[in-house]
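Example (one chain per record):
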Amino acid sequence: MSAFWAGLAGCGLALCAPGAAGFAQDRGGPVRPVAQGPTYADLVTLAERSDMVIRTRIRDQITVKPERARGLAPGFARLYLEGETLALLGGRGPVGESLAWLVDVPLDAKGKAPKLKKSEAVLFADPVPGRPGTVVLVDEDAQLAWTPALAERVRGVLRELVAPDAAPEITGIADALSVRGNLAGESETQIFLETKGDSPVSISVLRRPGQPPAWGVSWGEIIDSSARAPEPGTLRWYRLACALPRELPSSANLARDPDARALAEADYALVVAELGECARAITDED
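Predicted structure:
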């Protein structure tokens, strides 16, 4: 038996299959188009789910027989791949020179699996316990075709995630309160967010007569009056745009006066609208 076939036999198809990581195991629903490539939210999601982000060159592939490919959707093939590690872009553990993994890929118009040998890919993966050199993809679309542009985007995301001042995960809204000012049309709304690790994060919305409303985010104990809204396509933007509920929860609105409650709701809606959509092409929300 060749080393390649021996690797396939030793991988343990149930253990190494894409579904083994706990993500969607059945592609029975509509397949999402990915021609436009992953969005910023996709890359952050994949990076946070994975222990390793690896650039690899595929050396060999074999199509797993359908009867051995548990959970394989119609129109897809499951491939056993072996590759050469070119770079560990990010990760919390060692990685060897060679890798083996399984991936489900769509069949072409002739019902054939694509030929991936000699191509390069970026893998978002976890190691398989007790099987050195074997990894499992963390999502059904966690193997991406490598390009210099994609590599730069991935590295940028990884740098943001490990930065000392990385924005914390938002888990909910603690309180919101609107207060009218002394002048007509003047008000300030404070929205305090709940975070993983209890790091303080708050949103301020200011309204001044004759001026458009302005809002910003304070990422610390001190509420910064000069705080600004986060730039789209950054980790701070992602934490808000992809975690905040579409509407302000009634239980978080501390005001009793109907007008003050309505103002808090309007200011919150302004923030959500200006953050924009948390667009995804290949991942789902956690």
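Caption: The chain has a mean pLDDT of 89.
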